[in-house]
Design a protein that fits this description.
alpha+beta; eight-stranded mixed β-sheet
Length: 738
């Protein structure tokens, strides 16, 4: 019996010791709360205080190969890594091209069919060829990369990997050695050749094939070489050295100079030179990544870029985070010393002349849901944030004049707001190939004009976009050459000018147009039946129900019955290709800041059905087409403006689109994040950003105080539960002493 009692006492003592140890651990945790780092911080203290930018991504970038990438979520990374010849000035507006890897912005030379040099102002119909000579800056070097690693004898370390060596690697970091070399004109030519490579399916291959001399022929030559390789080796993915195949329109002049020859006159080519499609690519990387077995380990250009820019991708874990770090081989660049007059007042020139990049590292964490991201931004763990519909009222309020301001909660945290009208347009399109709603008859034109008045996009912007948009008056967004601001830019078909501002025409005028169209009160005067139109929607989820109901209401005002035909996006695209739809919402984002990039969306030979082009509504007006042909290759001038004005007048009268709205971007950023100026053309702006890590760390601690009362209650409970065991132990000791 005494032995059993001793076991019970010992067990109680053991439990007491465990509880005491737990108390000590909890006390240690409480003491740690007095440190320099918030308890819930997702990053180490060293990162939080460092010169590191914190952001997020919601889906894995599919292509990090500059020949294939054409998506915004991909450009967020590759534009910081690759350097094309040109870039957009960070501060100046209107957008201005300036040198990046090139010594200067190239000025084309024009030649006639006989090879005779033409004057700079030669009309487009006389120009047979345009030559662009590009001179690359010397001293530009690639980031450290195993594709460029060499042995003592100068041979490449990793260009002949064995099957066993491939099996031992899982990431690029598993290659212990790296190397670098200078980027030369040959590398820029190699990349242009990659754009023509049929196995890469570059999204700009078709348009480059129209202009770069010999581009299409080069692609056919490569396709034949790949077929021959397939027959001889059994694989179509082996390395083909593009240096061995000539491209007629691209010529190397010396180590740092090369020339691109285009057919005809194409001024917009200079804008393509600011996109990563034209960044240099070393042939060594092409060979390295072509080795059998590497692609199975995701070791490819789509996963691991190789560039000359200010940053390099050092961690690619799309299920967790992606990390950009400063490229130790970066050749250097200075923060701009010029901008707009207000830039100096706003502190955007405080860093003038400082070497770039201003930050050392950028960490992008995976965030699939908006609410967790928003909460982390408010906690100070992300430096910037967009404004979703769910968080809009918490962040933004509108003043009496319609201006956007931050709420007191945001102001109290030192959060700032940046807004910009995007170089994009969303429109409601009428399929002009449809007999009911399309065509060039006067009656159908009246019908489209009536609907254009009735569909109230001011209301749409207010309800569905929290006021983040500007009602469009033409296809040209604000800031694009040819767009008109003020009273002269107002669409007279849809709006009246009242006190210098647009006011939508009353519904009575729309109903009068319906009568002229042959549909009084929405009833056909020929058949006596109500007018029924089909709206093609790629939004089939529950969130789209309110929007689709709103759209029905707009048409009901004219007596039109709108049938919603919801489908997935692939089916929606098929309807556009075949021209089987009637009405649909669509949009376009500028590739470059030129009116040609928007007006070509309504150019007849670009029709979706007949030509598989980007003219999704299949609009085809001979006068508009002729003016487009004349305008597209002109330099910006008063004459070009006059032609654009006439083109816009034609479009407003024919109304192939309801012009919809230009979206307005709202972004929030913390006070420790500097040099914020929206640039809707440039994608490589990370290098200009500035971070005050010390200020960020202080704010994170202040906004995330430790919640210690549950631990205190737990400590008290543990103490209370330990007391009986202590008393039992003391009684046992006293009885043993007796």
């Amino acid at each position: 019996m005494r032995h059993l009692r001793r076991q019970v006492v010992q067990a109680a003592c053991g439990r007491t010791k465990c509880k005491l140890l737990l108390l000590v651990a909890l006390f240690g945790v409480l003491l740690s709360g007095c440190g320099e780092r918030a308890w819930n911080a997702p990053y180490p203290l060293s990162e939080s205080k460092s010169n590191t930018f914190f952001s997020s991504f919601s889906e894995r970038p599919k292509h990090l190969d500059p020949a294939r990438s054409y998506a915004a979520n991909e450009y967020a990374f590759i534009a910081q890594i690759y350097e094309p010849p040109l870039q957009y000035h960070f501060l100046k507006r209107p957008y201005q091209l300036v040198p990046l890897a090139a010594q200067q912005v190239p000025v084309p030379q024009f030649f006639d069919q006989a090879g005779q040099l033409l004057p700079d102002d030669a009309p487009a119909d006389r120009v047979a060829f345009s030559d662009y000579e590009i001179q690359v800056k010397p001293g530009i070097r690639y980031q450290p990369h195993p594709a460029l690693a060499t042995a003592a004898d100068g041979s490449y370390r990793y260009h002949h990997l064995t099957e066993a060596e491939v099996e031992r690697v899982n990431t690029l970091a598993d290659f212990p050695d790296t190397g670098t070399r200078e980027a030369t004109a040959e590398d820029y030519i190699y990349q242009i050749k990659r754009l023509a490579n049929p196995k890469l399916h570059s999204p700009i291959a078709s348009i480059m094939g129209e202009y770069i001399v010999g581009f299409k022929e080069f692609g056919k030559m490569l396709a034949a070489a790949q077929e021959q390789q397939s027959q001889s080796t059994g694989t179509r993915n082996g390395f083909i050295d593009l240096r061995d195949y000539p491209l007629a329109g691209v010529t190397q002049l010396d180590r740092y100079r090369f020339k691109v020859r285009l057919r005809g006159k194409y001024p917009q080519f200079i804008y393509w030179l600011a996109m990563t499609f034209f960044a240099p690519m070393p042939w060594e990387a092409d060979l390295f990544y072509s080795q059998p077995g590497l692609a199975k380990h995701n070791i490819s250009l789509n996963w691991y870029p190789i560039g000359t820019g200010p940053f390099m991708l050092t961690e690619n874990n799309p299920n967790l985070r992606m990390v950009l770090q400063r490229n130790p081989n970066f050749h250097g660049e200075a923060y701009p010393a010029e901008g707009e007059p207000e830039d100096r007042e706003q502190g955007l020139l405080d860093d003038a002349g400082r070497p770039l990049p201003l930050i050392d590292k950028a960490v992008y964490s995976l965030e699939k849901e908006g609410i967790p991201f928003w909460n982390k931004f408010l906690q100070g763990y992300y430096d910037t944030s967009g404004v979703s519909s769910d968080s809009f009222d918490q962040a933004v309020k509108f003043g009496s004049g319609g201006e956007a301001n931050l709420t007191p909660e945001m102001l109290a945290r030192g959060i700032k707001l940046a807004t910009a009208v995007e170089t994009s347009i969303f429109y409601l399109g009428f399929n002009m190939a449809d007999p009911v709603i399309g065509g060039d008859s006067e009656q159908n034109r009246y019908l489209r004009q009536a609907i254009s008045i009735a569909v109230n996009f001011e209301e749409y912007i207010s309800i569905f976009r929290n006021g983040r948009g500007v009602v469009a008056q033409s296809p040209l967004p604000l800031g694009i050459f040819g767009s008109r601001d003020g009273p002269e830019g107002i669409n007279p078909v849809v709006f009246d000018v009242v006190n210098g501002k647009p006011q939508r025409k009353p519904l009575e005028q729309a109903r009068a147009l319906m009568v002229k169209a042959g549909y009084p009160n929405g009833i056909s005067s020929k058949t006596g039946k109500p007018l029924v139109l089909n709206y093609e929607s790629a939004s089939a989820g529950p969130d789209s129900k309110a929007l689709l109901n709103w759209m029905r209401k707009q048409f009901k005002q004219l007596g039109i019955q709108l049938v919603i035909r919801a489908t997935d996006y692939n089916r929606f695209q098929e309807k556009l290709r075949k021209g089987t739809g009637q009405l649909f919402m669509f949009g376009w984002n500028a590739d470059y800041p030129d009116p040609e990039n928007f007006l070509f969306l309504l150019y007849g030979p670009n029709g979706k059905v007949d030509h598989a082009g980007e003219n999704a509504v299949n609009y085809d007006n001979p006068e508009f087409n002729a003016l487009f042909d004349k305008m597209k290759n002109m330099e910006n001038s008063p004459e070009r403006q006059r032609i654009i004005d006439r083109m816009v007048d034609i479009l407003r009268r024919d109304a192939p689109w309801i012009w919809g709205f230009y979206p307005k971007a709202f972004s929030l950023y913390h006070g420790w994040y500097g040099n914020v100026k929206p640039n809707l053309m440039a994608n490589n702006t990370l290098k200009y950003k500035r971070i005050d890590g010390e200020a960020r760390s202080r704010q994170q601690q202040g906004w995330n105080p430790p919640v210690v009362w549950p631990l205190i209650l737990l400590m008290l409970a543990l103490v209370a539960s330990a007391i009986p065991a202590v008393l039992v132990y003391r009684r046992h000791e006293r009885s043993a002493a007796r």
